[in-house]
Design a protein that fits this description.
alpha+beta, Alpha-Beta Plaits, 4-stranded antiparallel sheet, 2 helices, about 40% helix, globular
């Protein structure tokens, strides 16, 4: 089974410029967007550090964020 990282967040529409900033950073990481605010990368130490950095940045802005480690089973 392949390990993956999922970054899930809720940034209000009123914070559009911050949403775009995060979106651009996720695109630079080549994260795959699933279900609007769920972004997926294959597990690696580098990807984990990048997602942790983004999660902290989102949290500091007072927005909801979760970082999930999972496995693809199908």
């Amino acid at each position: 089974m392949k390990k993956i990282l999922v970054l899930s967040f809720d940034i209000p529409l009123s914070r559009a410029s911050f949403r775009v900033k995060i979106w651009r950073e996720l695109n630079e990481l080549e994260a795959e967007n699933r279900m609007r605010s769920h972004w997926v990368l294959p597990f690696s130490k580098k990807n984990l550090l990048e997602f942790k950095r983004l999660a902290e940045e989102i949290k500091k802005e007072g927005c909801k964020v979760e970082l999930i480690l999972g496995r693809v089973i199908g």
